[in-house]
């Protein structure tokens, strides 16, 4: 396909505000796409070169792009800067400046972009510039507009993963194929790979799709219930595991090669040198297992809080951190062992194998667990766990399989909560902010507009304004981070009746607590026909930022509805 044709689709997608039209346009695009380019077209459409767990960085700043535009258009940088000043968008500036005639194919453009990303080391800036100005010289004005936006990470077509899956199913002429495509996606987290498998081998190949070492499996999640009694009533005899408040890791081992993926499926191997070493020594040729990494005081045996563990999320000084705050790894699931897929096996079998795998390891140990059918026993251990700094318990169905990418009653969490608070914290995604008055005005941000995720429509729906729980320093930090993702108007995937002072791309997740969930006409989350949605009463931030979560990992509208129903049940009791 010619890149210009793909850009024509981008323009159509950008021009529509209706999700249904977007599905149709995308499915038309996929129908027309050849198997040797479908993966690349999907990545490009989502503003990436590869799935996020590869995340190659282009490394082109605004300044460099201005230089490349100047070279490609034979105009002085000053002229480019003036146009940029007038348009406020380097995409539009590129459109005005560039006018090439070469009609490149999608694969050619992709290869050039990849070459830019793969160039590193000494002298790389000049080499990157060479690639980029060459590419810009060749393309037409409208192609240049989208290339410029892509390069700066500002190609915001509003296409999330569920939208791609829906459109892929439609492109095969049947919406009902979506769950099977989703299953494959949950096993590899790579939409390009799923689409390529579909285009080359049809639905038969998708049905045969299995997990593979090196591709992160979308993580299984917990449902919640308000009490131990409810848990036993739902599950019968169950395994009760300690709930560790750390950094969830999925470890992939192939011989001596170890990769570690985070909750939002980013490659975080470099953050955990001691876990990588420990995983190498495990008695398995191949394995995929999950657990929580936690900072641990070796002398007192104490577990440190989440914020201490989180300090590992940095680029430099990791080895020093590893010395100061060594980590322990509490393994709670086994997904693959020596070529055998364990995700379909019952919990008990996975747990037994996991225990034998990690036995005797100095860093990796199996999560604390006991089996019971007595709610009183859960309550007793719950108190004891919480006293030792754990978050609560996760109950697991003994015959439950590992359900990749889904939240269901195979796992149920019970967390400590305080009087007058919701039984669980809520992860919200920031979609905009308010400047704030009085003392707050000096931070430039007084409250965040928070939303939850609706996977059905692949949009973010507002649920609250959050203005408390932040320290002064956090406010300043939030402002700097949000400044980088500010957009002129509401993001296409945000559904809001509230007008924020400043809109941002949905990216950052904040954990909040609240007194309760109420019904409110202000917010769009869970709106009924009368226009009444759900809102948080007295929300306050408890973890001002969750770098381990992506926008789509925020809690969902359905969960908010369920939590509201549960809080009523508790009140009645
Ligand atoms: P939370 O904000 O409560 O950590 P979450 O949204 O990350 O929740 P949930 O499915 O609600 O995810 O809770 C499960 C989380 O609890 C997992 O993502 C994992 O990080 C953590 N966890 C800690 N101990 C365990 C355990 N023994 N088994 C499963 N998950 C555990």
Model description:
This protein is of the alpha+beta class and 573 residues long. It folds into three domains: 3-151, DNA ligase i, domain 1 (Orthogonal Bundle); 221-419, D-amino Acid Aminotransferase, Chain A, domain 1, CATH 3.30.470.30; 426-569, Nucleic acid-binding proteins (OB fold (Dihydrolipoamide Acetyltransferase, E2P)). Helix content is 39%, strand content 21%. It is built from 20 helices and 21 strands. Strands 12, 13, 14, 15, 16, 17, 18 and 21 form an eight-stranded mixed β-sheet that branches. Strands 3, 4, 5, 6, 7 and 8 form a six-stranded mixed β-sheet that branches. Strand 6 (327-337) and strand 7 form a beta hairpin. The longest helix is centred in the middle third of the chain and has 17 residues, at 191-207. The protein is globular. It starts with a helix and ends with a helix. The model has no long low-confidence stretch (mean pLDDT 92). The structure holds adenosine-5'-triphosphate (ATP). Adenosine-5'-triphosphate (ATP) is lined by residues 221-222, 241-244, 248, 263, 292, 332, 367, 394, 413, 425, 427.
